[in-house]
Amino acid sequence: QKYYHYVHLFLQVEQVRLLDRFSNKSVHGTLYLTATHLIFILHHHIASVEKLSLTTSGCPLVIQCRNFRVVHFVIQRERDCHDVYSSLLRLLRPVCYEELYAFSYNPKQNDQQREEGWQLIDLGAEFERMGVPCDQWQLTDVNRDYKVCETYPRDLYVPVTASKPIIVGSSKFRSKGRFPVLTYFYQEKKAAVCRCSQPLSGFSARCLEDESMLQAISKANHNSRFLYVMDTRPKLNALANRAAGKGYENEDNYSNIRFQFVGIENIHVMRSSLQKLLEVTGTRSLSMSDYLVGLESSGWLRHIKAIVDAAVFLTRAVTVEGASVLVHCSDGWDRTAQVCALGALLMDPYYRTIKGFMVLIEKDWISFGHKFADRCDQLDGDPKEVSPIFTQFLECVWQLTEQFPQAFEFSEWFLLQIHEHVHSCQYGNFLGNNQRQREELQLRERTHSLWAFLMSEKRNHLNPFYSPAYSEAHPVLEPSTLPYHFKFWRSMYHQFDRSMHPRQSILKTILTLKENSRKAESTLQALESVSTLLHIPPATSRLPHSGSEEDEQEEVGEEATESTDTERTVEGSSGTESRKQSYGELEGTYNSDLVKEEPAVVSLEFGVARMTC
Amino acid sequence: MEFAELIKTPRVDGVVLHRPFMPTVEGTLCLTGHHLILSSRQDNTEELWLLHSNIDSIEKRFVGSLGHITVKCKDLRVIQLEITGMEECLNIASSIEALSTLDLVSLMYPFFYRPMFEVIEDGWNSFLPQNAFKDLESMTDEWRLSEVNKDFSLCPSYPPLVAVPKDFDDETLKKVATFRHGGRFPVLSYYHKKNGMVMMRAGQPLTGTNGRRCKEDEKLINATLRPGKRGYIIDTRAINVAQQAKARGGGFELEANYPQWRRIHKAIERYNVLQESLIKLVEACNDQSHSMDRWLSKLEASNWQTNVKEILTTACLAAQCIDREGASVLVHGTEGTDSTLQVTSLAQIILDPGCRTVKGFQSLVEREWLQAGHPFQQRCAQSAFSNSKPRHEAPVFLLFLDCVWQILRQFPCSFEFNESFLVLLFEHAYASQFGTFLGNSAAERARLCLPEKTVSLWSWVNRPQELERLTNPLYEPNSLVIWPSVAPQSLLLWEGVFLRWNRSSKCLDEAYEEMVHIIEYNKELQTKVNSLRRQLAQLETEDPLLHTP
Taking every annotated instance into account, which residue ranges of this chain make up the domain Myotubularin phosphatase (chain B) (predicted)? Predict the structure, then answer.
């Protein structure tokens, strides 16, 4: 309890009930509101299980979180409920970035440690790793002051033959000035993956500089006579854009391009798709039929498949045909980011490591201006700008890890952690919409980096089945995109609904075993050195050593006991579990035996919460 | 009859075999009485040995004189044969068709198969009812083993020995048998050691439209109740189906006559509805041209997952009644040979850790399926590719295995066997060199003299080299009751069976190998550490000098 005196309490409400989402269980407790957290302390006992009647038992308050947690409170007095509700409304809608948790979060690090955290990812070094700059590609300073494109980073890579006038001319012909730049270089075939926004071509407009720009990209690759231009939108959307003076490349005006639509839907479609999915999966006593019908009609897996299909197309074009590819959508920061990042992940084993994946996100998402603030609703913004584009990317990666269990250094826990913190606003990395804004906010000086935190927790995120040898043998992944390879990602969308998950986790078990093996290895080493010492025969030489030997032995003994005592816990198969399950018919008959449960704290960060009342 | 009469062309050269995710093989095709064999006659090249009884259907078409035969197997594999020459192709096709549709049991391969391995333990004697009863006797004396059905005359689908309440003599049992469908009077299925509650199974009561009753039946099942306690009757049919059964002489236990019992109706599908479901599911899995929407909608329309969920839910309910409610349970549907057995066997897997071991599971299959009279031969005569109208075929056993797999997925460390074991049982239930799944009942198996004339599947499985492949490396005995989640989000499509031939399993197999490796390495290390520590401890006791402070 003491802890809560340190933080400024906004509100405290006693006698609140927390309801389980899928059963009739509920827990009593006290609700606390602080400036950044909603805290609910669960009391020690479990209430009798009874049917809830909302009108008599209190005022319901449902909080849906962006990490897909749904919390259902029942507050006895309506006035209290209203107070909580209106306080939350105020707290949930920060008007400026400085109100976000990242600016008050203090993990007890000094400035130097924080600084080092931010230096963990270096995109200049990343382009060097790809082999850029090289004879065909160079770093341009044209955007040093964000003058040509304010949503791009300062450092951009372009073909050596693309002069400044060409770049500037091309940028004027592209939405938001997002002209074609390099995002991934496939060294083996000298093929480039470039990204940009749609051209302002309307029905007939053309731009010679833009045409020269594409020509320059194409010419920078001697392996292929043409350049693929992938418009990741459905053709209909691209056509509609023409009326607004935007559109897509006319193959007649650009020499040697191959134009291709890949049909990924826009942010609005994706937003409502996820909404439908969550509605379906949030239904209590959901039938199998309704689940499958809902899964289909939400279109969610269809969209996921479309993104993976596009990435596979990109990967084949680059790695098999050796052609360079220019990827764009409308503004080039949503679908383009998804396809470029996923394509690179398929082509380059480095991005399938923990560090590499951070680099990939830093490059294709953060630096190239995916609008995290708008898409994740960090400030009180336009709800039409919110969309689960980044979540989809993480899910695509998860779908791949299911097909290639040995190709990734990280497990799904890593993806879930990233997702959690994209929305928690606890770290500075994802705040704001682009690099320029982040610099203005002085995030590097005032907040902490997520990557450093995740690195320090690396052991928890490892995939025990990861095999670097596999990646060496299969540098390029060729996933199947047949529909049945795409599964509902239960660990993401039901991550807080524990009753739905396997009670024993293979991942956890194997991770523990690996950890035990690691400990056992060192114990073994220590034991072996002790026994070699003991086998030295002369009794005289033994005496002076004996004291220290025993010390060592004791130490070793302790360590070994510790490692062998680490039991695998059989989770949740005890008697209490059957009541969490509903098999129908017998519900509500368990009043008799109450089981004590340990107190727990539900703590919600406002960054992730959305509320309905 | 000679098989030779059916084999018009025993051998064709230059046949090309196509299998998904495997290299094409060219070689000689041979037909024998029981096998389709393709041999490349080169070393190290895999050959195909396919049991005719594994073939569900074949299709043939011609491009010029090149014939294509598509062979669709009961284990859901689809292979293509390219045969040059129209006559050869037609001969081969008609021979396969004739050989794969032989009805006579005694012509089946198990009667001709001679084991190429040493039988360590004869599987036919591994799970005798009298041995199972000994275990029961050690826990309770309220039951006795009755020989009332020793000549199979009282109930043709029951085994010669059944466990019944001790105080009921065989004469009473005979009366009760006349009141239950197929003579299947209530018998003991499972005794829950923890609280002494029992699960029984039976056929439906023959109440008919005028509500016939049988005092002996009522007394028999009441005898399993503790004083003042109620029991549960789980009827695996929806209430309207049970109502309709009255018109055909069947029915259900009326509250008035069974006041101590609460009846619960669950709707588990039966017969051709299940067969249709399987056919639709496999069709959906095999069509690779589907869009995401089409795939999901066909998966839904197949109803397979719905069936899995319903069966599992009913089994959980039965287990819940026994373990949580402390009540005895009687399970029946119509005949009591299909959905009833799904429920009683799954409930035991949930409740009884013993059933989650390799031997325990074999024993469960033996007791609750083979001895209990599930008509394997009828149900597994055809699989998902059959063109003929289904008669008695239904994937009842496959659904049971699917449900077990679902629980295994949710408790991956609580089973001694792995997924391969379940897949193996599926394969052998449909086509096998072993006699275990032949026949429809214990009576038929006795008549066919299977133990004398054929080899038991268990004889083969229970050898170290096979067991190693079928054992779950993650297994840690778990003595608790395991409650699976039956939420649709928790139930998955059993890819190991339904997508087995439609995906490359290389990556998954390698990951599994890696897992086995990690576990073995850990064990090795622990053994080394322990033995070193023992040695050191010994030195310490032998040499008091080491103890000097």
Answer: 123-498
